[in-house]
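CHAIN AND CONFORMATION:

***
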Amino acid sequence: MAEFTFYTNPMSRGQIARWALHEAGADYEQVIVEYGPDQPEAFTKANPMRKFPTLVHNHDDQEHVITEAAAICHYLAETHPDAGLLPDAHEKASYFRYLLFAAGPVEQAITARSMGWDVGDDPQKQGTAGFGSYDRMVDALDTMLTGRDYVCGDRFTMADVYVGSQAIWGVEFGTLPKRDVFVSYAERLKSRDAYTKAKKIDADLIAEREAANA
């Protein structure tokens, strides 16, 4: 049995976790799960939310379930310290701030915008929403990334997998504006070997599915 069981769908946020698995050099086996009611019992037991990605760490005769893409990213960095993806002491503030900013306000603001939910200019409503507004989120992310190559400065860490996935998706599909700082950051990350290998696996799975349904 592989060290990790990776439940995913190629058309999901599972792409983020696969990239993280490859950056960490993790030993994993994939289980492709379709959307809908007919899903493997092992998957629905591991994650009653039936969300992708879901990762199971098969360790010391126990199964440790990790869900939520940002949590999976950091967990893999923690369990593979030799990969050098964890922050140094002076990098931790940026690492955790950016990682959770992307998992919270960035994700929320983009989702709200795509669903047509506009909190307007009311400061109280913006505070209740948690992400302020889409424009404020974009400006904050721009400010955070300006003047640095990666989340923690000059060095790639696991936080870049999650934050970078937002940037890559954002500039490719228009969920973020194509500002120079987002485009250049996305291009740096897309040149990484682990990203290229992980992306190809999901791209091939998607292509196989499209060919089968043609």
Q: What stands out?
A: The chain has nine helices and four strands. The radius of gyration is 18 Å. Residues 92-115 form the longest helix (24 residues).
